[in-house]
Protein backbone atom coordinates (compact mmCIF):
# COMPACT_ATOMS: atom_id res chain seq x y z
CA UNK A 1 0.00 0.00 0.00
CA UNK A 2 1.38 3.39 -1.03
CA UNK A 3 -0.05 5.68 1.67
CA UNK A 4 1.46 8.87 0.28
CA UNK A 5 0.13 8.32 -3.24
CA UNK A 6 -3.25 7.21 -1.95
CA UNK A 7 -3.56 10.33 0.22
CA UNK A 8 -2.54 12.63 -2.63
CA UNK A 9 -4.95 10.96 -5.07
CA UNK A 10 -7.90 11.17 -2.67
CA UNK A 11 -7.22 14.81 -1.88
CA UNK A 12 -6.83 15.68 -5.58
CA UNK A 13 -10.11 14.01 -6.58
CA UNK A 14 -11.96 15.55 -3.62
CA UNK A 15 -10.77 19.05 -4.51
CA UNK A 16 -11.73 18.55 -8.17
CA UNK A 17 -15.40 18.02 -7.30
CA UNK A 18 -17.96 20.71 -6.58
CA UNK A 19 -21.00 20.14 -4.35
CA UNK A 20 -23.36 20.33 -7.32
CA UNK A 21 -21.36 17.54 -9.02
CA UNK A 22 -22.57 15.10 -6.38
CA UNK A 23 -26.07 16.46 -5.79
CA UNK A 24 -25.22 18.63 -2.77
CA UNK A 25 -26.27 22.28 -2.38
CA UNK A 26 -23.47 24.78 -2.95
CA UNK A 27 -24.44 26.79 0.13
CA UNK A 28 -22.71 30.00 1.24
CA UNK A 29 -19.12 30.89 0.41
CA UNK A 30 -16.88 27.89 1.03
CA UNK A 31 -13.31 28.14 2.26
CA UNK A 32 -12.54 24.58 1.15
CA UNK A 33 -11.77 24.00 -2.52
CA UNK A 34 -13.99 21.24 -3.84
CA UNK A 35 -15.78 18.99 -1.38
CA UNK A 36 -15.20 18.96 2.35
CA UNK A 37 -13.78 15.81 3.92
CA UNK A 38 -16.95 15.24 5.88
CA UNK A 39 -18.97 15.43 2.66
CA UNK A 40 -16.88 12.72 1.00
CA UNK A 41 -17.11 10.60 4.14
CA UNK A 42 -20.89 10.95 4.18
CA UNK A 43 -21.19 10.04 0.50
CA UNK A 44 -18.95 7.01 1.09
CA UNK A 45 -20.85 5.98 4.25
CA UNK A 46 -17.77 6.06 6.49
CA UNK A 47 -16.67 8.16 9.43
CA UNK A 48 -15.03 11.51 8.80
CA UNK A 49 -12.16 10.47 11.09
CA UNK A 50 -11.49 7.35 8.98
CA UNK A 51 -11.43 9.32 5.74
CA UNK A 52 -9.30 12.09 7.26
CA UNK A 53 -6.68 9.56 8.36
CA UNK A 54 -6.47 8.23 4.80
CA UNK A 55 -5.75 11.73 3.48
CA UNK A 56 -3.18 12.25 6.25
CA UNK A 57 -1.23 9.08 5.34
CA UNK A 58 -1.94 7.40 8.67
CA UNK A 59 -4.99 5.26 7.99
CA UNK A 60 -5.15 1.47 7.79
CA UNK A 61 -5.31 -0.31 4.46
CA UNK A 62 -8.87 0.19 3.16
CA UNK A 63 -10.85 -2.93 2.34
CA UNK A 64 -12.17 -3.50 -1.17
CA UNK A 65 -15.62 -2.59 0.12
CA UNK A 66 -14.30 0.75 1.42
CA UNK A 67 -12.53 1.42 -1.86
CA UNK A 68 -15.74 0.74 -3.79
CA UNK A 69 -17.53 3.27 -1.58
CA UNK A 70 -14.80 5.86 -2.10
CA UNK A 71 -14.82 5.33 -5.86
CA UNK A 72 -18.56 5.94 -5.90
CA UNK A 73 -18.37 9.01 -3.65
CA UNK A 74 -15.59 10.60 -5.72
CA UNK A 75 -17.32 9.77 -9.01
CA UNK A 76 -14.27 7.91 -10.32
CA UNK A 77 -14.09 6.51 -13.82
CA UNK A 78 -13.21 2.83 -14.27
CA UNK A 79 -9.54 3.72 -14.89
CA UNK A 80 -9.44 5.95 -11.80
CA UNK A 81 -11.14 3.23 -9.74
CA UNK A 82 -8.55 0.67 -10.85
CA UNK A 83 -5.73 3.08 -9.94
CA UNK A 84 -7.29 3.63 -6.50
CA UNK A 85 -7.35 -0.11 -5.85
CA UNK A 86 -3.72 -0.56 -6.91
CA UNK A 87 -2.24 2.25 -4.80
CA UNK A 88 -4.25 0.90 -1.85
CA UNK A 89 -2.56 -2.49 -2.28
CA UNK A 90 -5.37 -4.43 -3.98
CA UNK A 91 -5.77 -5.91 -7.42
CA UNK A 92 -8.02 -3.90 -9.70
CA UNK A 93 -11.39 -5.66 -9.93
CA UNK A 94 -12.53 -7.12 -13.24
CA UNK A 95 -15.51 -5.28 -14.69
CA UNK A 96 -17.84 -8.24 -14.23
CA UNK A 97 -16.82 -8.72 -10.61
CA UNK A 98 -17.12 -5.10 -9.53
CA UNK A 99 -20.89 -4.59 -9.22
CA UNK A 100 -20.54 -1.97 -6.48
CA UNK A 101 -18.78 0.58 -8.66
CA UNK A 102 -21.46 2.88 -10.03
CA UNK A 103 -21.02 4.29 -13.51
CA UNK A 104 -20.23 8.03 -13.10
CA UNK A 105 -22.50 8.96 -16.03
CA UNK A 106 -25.50 7.37 -14.32
CA UNK A 107 -24.60 9.02 -11.01
CA UNK A 108 -24.54 12.44 -12.65
CA UNK A 109 -28.09 11.91 -13.86
CA UNK A 110 -29.25 10.55 -10.49
CA UNK A 111 -27.73 13.51 -8.66
CA UNK A 112 -30.10 15.81 -10.53
CA UNK A 113 -33.25 13.86 -9.73
CA UNK A 114 -34.69 14.84 -6.38
CA UNK A 115 -38.41 15.13 -7.07
CA UNK A 116 -39.12 11.63 -8.39
CA UNK A 117 -37.98 8.12 -7.40
CA UNK A 118 -34.75 7.01 -9.07
CA UNK A 119 -32.24 4.26 -8.35
CA UNK A 120 -29.27 2.51 -9.94
CA UNK A 121 -29.21 -1.29 -10.03
CA UNK A 122 -26.67 -3.80 -11.23
CA UNK A 123 -27.67 -6.74 -13.41
CA UNK A 124 -28.28 -8.94 -10.34
CA UNK A 125 -30.97 -6.60 -9.07
CA UNK A 126 -28.80 -5.09 -6.33
CA UNK A 127 -29.51 -1.44 -5.56
CA UNK A 128 -26.19 0.39 -5.76
CA UNK A 129 -27.57 3.83 -4.92
CA UNK A 130 -31.03 5.36 -4.59
CA UNK A 131 -32.36 8.85 -4.02
CA UNK A 132 -34.56 9.76 -1.07
CA UNK A 133 -37.77 9.36 -3.11
CA UNK A 134 -36.86 5.80 -4.12
CA UNK A 135 -36.03 4.99 -0.50
CA UNK A 136 -39.43 6.35 0.55
CA UNK A 137 -41.16 4.20 -2.06
CA UNK A 138 -39.20 0.94 -1.82
CA UNK A 139 -37.39 1.22 1.51
CA UNK A 140 -33.73 1.77 2.32
CA UNK A 141 -31.90 -0.85 0.26
CA UNK A 142 -28.58 -0.18 2.02
CA UNK A 143 -29.84 -2.21 4.98
CA UNK A 144 -29.73 -5.46 3.02
CA UNK A 145 -26.66 -7.70 3.16
CA UNK A 146 -25.54 -10.95 1.56
CA UNK A 147 -27.81 -12.51 -1.03
CA UNK A 148 -30.69 -10.37 0.23
CA UNK A 149 -29.07 -7.43 -1.55
CA UNK A 150 -30.51 -8.87 -4.76
CA UNK A 151 -34.14 -7.94 -5.38
CA UNK A 152 -34.47 -11.17 -7.38
CA UNK A 153 -33.42 -13.22 -4.36
CA UNK A 154 -35.77 -11.33 -2.03
CA UNK A 155 -38.66 -11.68 -4.49
CA UNK A 156 -38.54 -15.47 -4.32
CA UNK A 157 -37.55 -15.88 -0.66
CA UNK A 158 -39.32 -13.10 1.25
CA UNK A 159 -43.12 -12.70 0.84
CA UNK A 160 -42.91 -9.12 2.16
CA UNK A 161 -40.96 -8.11 -0.94
CA UNK A 162 -44.07 -8.58 -3.07
CA UNK A 163 -46.23 -6.22 -1.03
CA UNK A 164 -45.15 -3.25 -3.12
CA UNK A 165 -46.96 -4.73 -6.16
CA UNK A 166 -50.68 -5.44 -6.55
CA UNK A 167 -51.47 -9.14 -6.31
CA UNK A 168 -52.77 -9.13 -9.90
CA UNK A 169 -49.33 -8.07 -11.20
CA UNK A 170 -47.10 -10.38 -9.19
CA UNK A 171 -46.99 -13.23 -11.71
CA UNK A 172 -45.77 -10.83 -14.39
CA UNK A 173 -43.16 -9.45 -12.02
CA UNK A 174 -41.95 -12.97 -11.25
CA UNK A 175 -41.41 -13.65 -14.94
CA UNK A 176 -39.65 -10.30 -15.40
CA UNK A 177 -37.31 -10.96 -12.47
CA UNK A 178 -36.29 -14.34 -13.88
CA UNK A 179 -35.94 -13.05 -17.44
CA UNK A 180 -33.65 -10.25 -16.24
CA UNK A 181 -31.52 -12.70 -14.24
CA UNK A 182 -31.19 -15.00 -17.25
CA UNK A 183 -29.81 -12.10 -19.27
CA UNK A 184 -27.21 -11.50 -16.52
CA UNK A 185 -26.45 -15.22 -16.36
CA UNK A 186 -25.83 -15.32 -20.09
CA UNK A 187 -23.42 -12.38 -19.83
CA UNK A 188 -21.53 -13.46 -16.71
CA UNK A 189 -21.59 -17.24 -17.17
CA UNK A 190 -22.59 -20.19 -14.93
CA UNK A 191 -19.50 -19.93 -12.67
CA UNK A 192 -20.18 -16.29 -11.80
CA UNK A 193 -22.13 -14.73 -8.96
CA UNK A 194 -25.16 -14.81 -11.25
CA UNK A 195 -24.74 -18.58 -11.64
CA UNK A 196 -24.53 -19.07 -7.88
CA UNK A 197 -27.64 -16.93 -7.39
CA UNK A 198 -29.52 -19.12 -9.87
CA UNK A 199 -28.43 -22.32 -8.12
CA UNK A 200 -29.45 -20.99 -4.71
CA UNK A 201 -32.88 -19.93 -5.94
CA UNK A 202 -33.44 -23.25 -7.68
CA UNK A 203 -32.89 -24.97 -4.34
CA UNK A 204 -35.22 -22.79 -2.28
CA UNK A 205 -38.00 -21.77 -4.69
CA UNK A 206 -40.09 -24.11 -6.83
CA UNK A 207 -41.65 -21.09 -8.50
CA UNK A 208 -38.24 -19.81 -9.57
CA UNK A 209 -37.14 -23.23 -10.80
CA UNK A 210 -40.24 -23.53 -12.94
CA UNK A 211 -39.83 -20.08 -14.46
CA UNK A 212 -36.10 -20.62 -15.03
CA UNK A 213 -36.91 -23.70 -17.10
CA UNK A 214 -38.85 -21.51 -19.56
CA UNK A 215 -35.62 -19.87 -20.79
CA UNK A 216 -37.20 -16.42 -21.12
CA UNK A 217 -34.65 -13.63 -21.55
CA UNK A 218 -35.35 -9.90 -21.35
CA UNK A 219 -34.03 -6.58 -20.15
CA UNK A 220 -36.64 -3.88 -19.67
CA UNK A 221 -36.32 -0.58 -21.50
CA UNK A 222 -39.57 0.98 -20.29
CA UNK A 223 -42.53 -0.14 -18.27
CA UNK A 224 -45.81 1.08 -16.87
CA UNK A 225 -46.39 -0.26 -13.40
CA UNK A 226 -48.56 0.12 -10.37
CA UNK A 227 -46.83 0.21 -6.99
CA UNK A 228 -48.53 -0.02 -3.60
CA UNK A 229 -47.71 2.30 -0.72
CA UNK A 230 -49.24 1.43 2.69
CA UNK A 231 -50.45 4.99 3.26
CA UNK A 232 -50.95 6.35 -0.25
CA UNK A 233 -52.35 3.20 -1.84
CA UNK A 234 -51.75 2.32 -5.48
CA UNK A 235 -49.57 4.67 -7.53
CA UNK A 236 -49.44 4.28 -11.33
CA UNK A 237 -45.99 5.19 -12.61
CA UNK A 238 -44.00 5.12 -15.81
CA UNK A 239 -40.61 3.45 -15.39
CA UNK A 240 -37.81 4.41 -17.76
CA UNK A 241 -34.51 2.50 -17.82
CA UNK A 242 -31.13 3.86 -18.90
CA UNK A 243 -28.41 1.22 -19.35
CA UNK A 244 -24.63 1.57 -19.32
CA UNK A 245 -22.90 0.51 -22.52
CA UNK A 246 -21.90 -2.87 -21.04
CA UNK A 247 -25.48 -3.32 -19.74
CA UNK A 248 -24.24 -4.19 -16.25
CA UNK A 249 -25.98 -1.25 -14.59
CA UNK A 250 -29.35 0.42 -15.03
CA UNK A 251 -30.75 3.75 -13.90
CA UNK A 252 -34.49 3.42 -13.23
CA UNK A 253 -36.56 6.60 -13.10
CA UNK A 254 -40.20 6.49 -12.06
CA UNK A 255 -42.43 9.39 -13.07
CA UNK A 256 -46.09 10.36 -13.30
CA UNK A 257 -47.76 12.75 -15.78
CA UNK A 258 -48.37 16.26 -14.38
CA UNK A 259 -51.76 17.05 -12.84
CA UNK A 260 -52.62 13.39 -12.28
CA UNK A 261 -53.51 11.57 -9.08
CA UNK A 262 -50.20 9.69 -9.24
CA UNK A 263 -48.29 12.97 -9.54
CA UNK A 264 -49.98 14.27 -6.41
CA UNK A 265 -49.17 11.02 -4.58
CA UNK A 266 -45.49 11.41 -5.46
CA UNK A 267 -45.60 14.89 -3.94
CA UNK A 268 -47.10 13.44 -0.77
CA UNK A 269 -44.51 10.65 -0.81
CA UNK A 270 -41.78 13.26 -0.66
CA UNK A 271 -43.35 14.60 2.54
CA UNK A 272 -43.86 11.18 4.12
CA UNK A 273 -40.29 10.10 3.44
CA UNK A 274 -39.11 6.93 5.18
CA UNK A 275 -41.77 6.94 7.89
CA UNK A 276 -43.34 3.75 6.51
CA UNK A 277 -40.13 1.82 7.12
CA UNK A 278 -39.49 2.62 10.76
CA UNK A 279 -39.22 -0.22 13.23
CA UNK A 280 -38.75 -3.87 12.37
CA UNK A 281 -41.40 -4.00 9.65
CA UNK A 282 -39.09 -5.74 7.19
CA UNK A 283 -36.10 -6.65 9.35
CA UNK A 284 -36.59 -10.35 8.70
CA UNK A 285 -35.72 -9.79 5.03
CA UNK A 286 -32.28 -8.44 5.81
CA UNK A 287 -29.17 -10.42 6.39
From TrEMBL:
SUPFAM superfamilies, A to Z: lambda repressor-like DNA-binding domains
InterPro entries with a match to the protein in the record: Cro/C1-type_HTH, Lambda_DNA-bd_dom_sf, MLTR_LBD
Signal sequence annotation: none
SMART domains per record: HTH_XRE
Pfam families named among the record's database cross-references: HTH_31, MLTR_LBD
Domain of life: Bacteria
Positions of the HTH cro/C1-type domain: 9-81
PANTHER family: BLL4672 PROTEIN (PTHR35010:SF2), BLL4672 PROTEIN-RELATED (PTHR35010)
Protein's recorded name: Helix-turn-helix transcriptional regulator
Taxonomy of the source species: Bacteria, Bacillati, Actinomycetota, Actinomycetes, Kitasatosporales
Amino acid sequence: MDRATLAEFLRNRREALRPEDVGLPAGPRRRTRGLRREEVASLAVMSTDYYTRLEQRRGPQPSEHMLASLARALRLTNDERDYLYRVAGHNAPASLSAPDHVAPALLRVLDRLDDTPALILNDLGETLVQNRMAAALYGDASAYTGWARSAVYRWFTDPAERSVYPESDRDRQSRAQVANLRAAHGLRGPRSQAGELVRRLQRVSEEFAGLWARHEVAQRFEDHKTLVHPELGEIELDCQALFTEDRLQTLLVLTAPPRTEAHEKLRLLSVLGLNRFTGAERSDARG
